[in-house]
User: Which sequence fits this backbone?
């Protein structure tokens, strides 16, 4: 079995985790499509945050990459392979941890591994390694209700990472946490990312979180309820190095630029 620090490769030996979103569209049948013509090229190991006003299609995009929903048009490719449904190459972390309350931390992390065919011993060892990766070595025998929200989400992340996805998809993973825990978990996510090197696509309402964690921030706009299909307004690179200081002037300047982009009005002609 691979360990948390291993770099994943495809069967051709190239680094895994390349995501191509190609002219993606989704309509739920209303007068305006939820999303239209969304194209993104995400490199292996890249961390991309998706931000935008409510209803612009962030979660819809993530669900289509996850394979939970089929696009109306366009396609998603992961390492060159079209996404036709959920798959082990993509791990999904949701806001509501989704842990089994009757299983311990170790059992929760091991569960997916056992389902994927790992032996009891392999699953146990890997669960212990991944509990350590997220700083929960001392809590492997605890049950979810004995843990704080932040700790439960760490279990949720460890459980997904134990399956060694080449792409980690996260929809507001820290949204249910208080501000202080959220900040700690952002540090944790940044550290995990440096260690594991998985491609990350993160949907967040927090511009600060996006600037803190991402290599690029995708700003989406529009949405069915705005009368304009959801679309990519701009993709902004975050060139602030590996260890970021949220109090630095350059950090604030980028936050302000992104806030302005997120809240910019839709073109009058398009919205008409
Ligand atoms: N299952 C569904 N059936 C019908 N409409 C849907 C469905 N899921 C999403 N939509 C619509 O698609 C649009 C995009 O929704 P989505 O949840 O992707 O937006 P979002 O940017 O993630 O929003 P938020 O920031 O509020 O979570 C919205 O207008 C929403 O009402």
Assistant:
């Amino acid at each position: 079995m691979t360990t948390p620090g291993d770099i994943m490769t495809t069967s051709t030996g190239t680094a895994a985790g390349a995501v191509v979103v190609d002219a993606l569209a989704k309509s739920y049948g209303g007068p305006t499509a939820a999303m239209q013509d969304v194209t993104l090229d995400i490199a292996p190991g890249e961390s991309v945050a998706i931000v935008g006003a409510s209803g612009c299609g962030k979660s819809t995009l993530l669900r289509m990459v996850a394979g939970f929903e089929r696009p109306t048009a366009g396609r998603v490719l992961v390492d060159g392979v079209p996404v036709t449904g959920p798959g082990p190459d993509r791990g999904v972390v949701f806001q509501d941890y989704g842990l089994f309350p009757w299983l311990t931390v170790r059992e929760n992390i091991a569960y997916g591994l056992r389902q994927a065919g790992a032996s009891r011993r392999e699953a146990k060892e890997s669960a212990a390694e991944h509990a350590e990766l997220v700083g929960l070595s001392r809590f492997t025998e605890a049950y979810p209700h004995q843990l704080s929200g932040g700790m439960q989400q760490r279990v949720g992340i460890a459980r997904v990472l134990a399956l060694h996805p080449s792409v980690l998809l996260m929809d507001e993973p820290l949204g249910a946490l208080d501000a202080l825990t959220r900040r700690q978990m952002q540090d944790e996510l940044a550290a995990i990312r440096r260690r594991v090197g998985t491609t990350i696509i993160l949907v967040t309402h927090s511009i600060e979180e996006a600037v803190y964690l991402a290599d690029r921030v995708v700003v989406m706009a529009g949405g069915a309820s705005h009368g304009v299909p959801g679309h990519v307004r701009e993709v902004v690179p975050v060139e602030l190095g590996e260890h970021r200081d949220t109090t630095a002037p350059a950090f604030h300047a980028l936050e302000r630029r992104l806030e302005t982009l997120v809240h910019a009005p839709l073109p009058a002609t398009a919205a008409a």
